[in-house]
Amino acid sequence: MGTQEAIAYGVPMIGIPLFADQFTNVDKYVAKNIAIRLDIQTITEERMDAALNAILRNPLYRETARNLSRQFLDRPLNAIDTATYWIEYVIKYGEDSLRSPAMDMFWWQLSLVDVIGFLLLCAITVIAITIFVIRLTLKMINDNYNSSLHLKKTS
């Protein structure tokens, strides 16, 4: 909850990712100008001091974090009311009302492998037909040229 709390209160962060999705999350926060990333392998006292000074003294980080906080907190219902609404919704309409159709799909359908395969087959068919037409045209031109040469030799 640390990053969510920091965003809610408009506080810029210093991120030191260690594993899993932390690297991606910190990179996203850096791109939004609400965080500075430090690498655990190369962290030094000087780099930490520079990061702290940048976060504390550069108004860009504070303003961007405050703007993101305003967006985050601008909701029609507070968290308790939202949770209550969705719990009552599931009770009223059943658990399947929020079930994603993706749960009933095979991995290859979810990844659109079947669609990619179909489009690839269409592309290969178009290329094969194009090659066939070009070869047929070249053969007709070649046959016409050879017959005209044969007529010139015989006359």
Q: Name the shape in a single word.
A: elongated
Q: The biggest beta sheet, please?
A: 2 strands, parallel
- Classify the secondary structure makeup into a structural class: mainly alpha
Helices, by number, come to 7
Low-confidence stretches: none
Summarize the structure.
This protein is mostly helical. 69% of the residues lie in helices and 4% in strands.
What's the topology here?
Elements: H1 2-9, E1 13-15, H2 22-31, E2 35-37, H3 45-57, H4 59-73, H5 79-93, H6 107-110, H7 113-154
Parallel strand pairs: 1-2
Helix pairs in contact: 1-4
Could you describe the 3D structure shown?
The mean pLDDT is 91. The longest helix is centred in the last third of the chain and has 42 residues, at 113-154. Strands 1-2 form a two-stranded parallel sheet. The protein has helices spanning 2-9, 22-31, 45-57, 59-73, 79-93, 107-110, 113-154, and strands at residues 13-15, 35-37. It is elongated and about 95 Å long. It is mostly helical and 155 residues long. The protein is 69% helix and 4% strand. This is UDP-glucuronosyltransferase. The chain crosses the membrane at residues 106-134. Belongs to the UDP-glycosyltransferase family. Keywords: Glycosyltransferase, Membrane, Transferase, Transmembrane, Transmembrane helix.
Features:
7 helices, 155 residues, UDP_glucos_trans
